[in-house]
# Entry
Amino acid sequence: VILTVTPNPALDVTYTVDRLVLHASHRVSALREMAGGKGLNVTSVLAQRGIPVLATGPVGGQAGARLVADLDARDIAHELVPTSGETRRTVTVVSEADGEATAFNEQGVELSPHEWSLLLSAVARLLDTYRPQVLVASGSVPDGFPADGYAQLVEVGHAAGCRVIVDASREALLGSLAARPDVVKPNRHELVEATGEQYPVAGARALQAMGARQVVASLGEDGLLLVDASGHVVRAALAEPLRGNPTGAGDAAVAAIAAGLSDGLDWETVLADAVAWSAAAVLQPVAGQGEDDDITRLRAGVRVWRD
Amino acid sequence: VILTVTPNPALDVTYTVDRLVLHASHRVSALREMAGGKGLNVTSVLAQRGIPVLATGPVGGQAGARLVADLDARDIAHELVPTSGETRRTVTVVSEADGEATAFNEQGVELSPHEWSLLLSAVARLLDTYRPQVLVASGSVPDGFPADGYAQLVEVGHAAGCRVIVDASREALLGSLAARPDVVKPNRHELVEATGEQYPVAGARALQAMGARQVVASLGEDGLLLVDASGHVVRAALAEPLRGNPTGAGDAAVAAIAAGLSDGLDWETVLADAVAWSAAAVLQPVAGQGEDDDITRLRAGVRVWRD
# Structure
């Protein structure tokens, strides 16, 4: 089983409008609510692929109850930690005229030190109970999340014999590195932001110098870049770029990496899968999705090469 | 006391972002939740002016509970009718860079015939218990609201000896007219939409031909236009137009008209007050507000004239 930790879950609300116009008033023609936050998107992708996965993270209030209801409706296993603060919402407005999405992300309420320690012990308990091969810790962090919070998660994961994947940005990413996460997965922008390096390979090597064992950078249309533990560079990409909704593409890549590590696949296979899962997510209107048929078709068109 | 009926209340959520950019992802820097829907905005303005007011309407679910909590926090009297469906939300995104607002209005869930009859009997009971001088029925209507729903409200109001003000649009406005509402308050766009007349005076006379006793049209920067029961035309406007957030300006005008009718003021005074209350609302970032100082200052600059 794969265990996912989402420190800052969200109730993802999608509003469909005819055409989004600045400074206008819009009638919402369709409304959809789903469990969100990057770790729960990863969970959702894995569950949809039929891969055993269990989710944890803090949830609270009425939005939290609806997030749980969505997970239950989709038969996604979870052991969430109740918090006093209400789970944040994200509102994504999809403009039907052009298919484009505009997103508004609430920050969420502060996690108290007590709530953080409850979350960390819940993770330790779940690692002990379910013995996952892979722990995924993913997404933005709420106020009150310790600077080394992701490092603490990596440490409890390693102590339980797990490989640990961290998908975070800025201080949260940097704060994870001292604990030597097995994989970090920044995107191009996050890599520049965290390291100051303009070139992805240089950025990935900088993260390795700070402690990351392996770095997979998601580069949009340019696919994925791996710098492995020996410093070798492997790339994977679609032969032709795809149009669609990039939200959740990175989470689908993380899901594929988690599945690949869990199954002991070689990195070239893992990267090719990750590109295909990611591309299938681009074809979906909301994060955390991807059709099997799309994955099979897209997988056949993935190129993998060494620099 | 003034009784307000809001057939389609909303939890108004305001998101502040640095700058709203189409197709981008935004961090919400401030979040505010308030009771909304046009009738509740009218209620809020009256309560802020210290005028006795009581609100009714259907509310349900978690958003409904938060709407009620906001009314309670602001000491606004209400006797709301519980419904099975969840109260809708509206999300207004305020872009700090330019102060402009972009709104997304959920439609809300259907009102069942049983819930409509509960609402109508609640209104009849409140009229009987509190003997208001004025009934305000205001705003959009949910699915399931009868075509003559506003007419039924006008009838129960008249039966209890109330003057009734209807602020509605399209079919809901047209459906009210047979019951001869004392005042209807369309804006320029709603007047054209309901009557097909391009000129406000012609539109107002068309509504009177269909049953409205008096029509006050809100014309934005051109102020207010009254066509009274004798067919005379009175206008009121600020000497200079005001910049700001027009959301809720019409509701503030309705509040002033309700207060004026309740106090038996002459129409010229009512219109001048309505322009000042409306203008004070334009200076506020959210609907249902207006500062006393602004009203006093703006009131001095209102011109009232007969065509």
Notes: Chain B is about 35% helix and 25% strand. The first strand of chain B starts at residue 2 and ends at 5. The longest helix of chain B spans residues 113-130.
